Amino acid sequence: MMNSRAKKILLVDDNEIFLKMMGQSFKNHGFECTFASSAEDAITLLNTSSPPDIILSDYEMLEMNGIEFKRHLMHDAELKDIPFVFLTYFSDNDLIISGLDLRAIDFVVKDTPIKVIISKINNILFTIEKQRELTELEIKKAASSLNFKSIPVTKPTVKGFEIDFWHNAYHDIPGGDFIDFIRVNDRYKFVVLGDVMGKKWMAWFFTFGFLSYIRSAVRFTALSGEYSVAAILQKVNSVICFDNILKDILSSLSLLLIDSEENKITYAGAGDLPLLHYQSANNKLKQLNSTGLLLGLMEEGNYNQQEIILEKGDKLFIFTDGMIDFIDESMKKSDYNLFVEMMQPYMTMDDGFTKMKKELFLKGLDQQVDDQSIISIYKN
Amino acid sequence: MISIHKETESALLLNLNTSEANLVNADEFKAEIISLFDEHQKKIILSLKQVEYIDSSFLGALVAVLKHLLSFKSDLILVGLHKDIINLFKMIRLDKVFKIYDSFDELPA
User: Which residues of A touch B53 (CB under 8 A)?
Assistant: First the structure.
């Protein structure tokens, strides 16, 4: 499936009229356009806003020309792989070769009818997207043959509670977030939410290691009849600090144990964001902080546990840092309080989490800068 | 992406010259700062004054550098953190791991 979001194009040309005309045509064909009237302006724009899907740049410009502009981008790890097409009146072979040597995808002569230019750009973007999908498909096939899932397919059932979750992978590629619901017996169920630092496949591969250790520690602890989430965190952390591969990788973890018989939850956290407890009696969202350090950080992780009592109508939210990242006027920021404010209106609604998914989380995907995961526990 | 602000007898004072510290520049940062440490063999005081956003990959790189320096009985001290970043450090308890000061001038003697 081709990604249906509007493709972003950066048009660079020192001819303002030409820039406007091109911009209008691209917009009419569903593109989102940004403009720069010089290579210098384009560089500033690229350094301060999210990258476009493609750059279409004039060759002959005052100060820095198109080739120099592309050469500058080649030295920037973040910008060098953005597809780049030259648009020029020049059709000199040496010039074209210099541009192609700098990994420009194509040269388009400015006299070319605009419809043809747009078709060319669409074809280039389609080919790139297709190639990316094929590569991902291959990796996904390999991953599924290992039968490993870092995110559950369905929500769990727990007597006395309603549990739901929402997860969205950054750029649709599995990343470092992981969720698990581990049933011990009719009485006990563990809820696991973690975030391996890093993004996309690289982080995802390490979730194998972390989840395997967590699942083992939970099972061993349950077998011994000891139900301490803090003790489990300490065990997992100790093992990771001795693991030659994982010791340089860090992960946050929120670990909760739901006791359906006693109607209580115990919680311990490792470098995780504060949980949110909605208390229906006073209509307030209360922050619950844990004490533990990120897994793999220090051998002594200072893991403590606390008991959470959910009254009827109370809700508990556990989430990863991707949920609190926002892009504001092209600047990225992490704002926990803003996220809390955005959630507040949904707290009194019976189907609040379903509405939040639809109205808050899915709508905010344009601003996504990392994996996003949130678990909701509702006391019914 | 790192420039030397000052070198004293016991420390190397560095500026991190990026407004967005993220996955893309995390490896480059790690390599540069470790090479500076190898060369100077002094504790490092890093100013994040120019950094407005930091993602978890870069936090991972900062911690990796801290662990590396601690293994050599040295240290990585941070200064000039913006309010949002300080809050993030506190929320995930990284303020318990790093020594953090307002600016180079506020460092204890």
Answer: 331-334
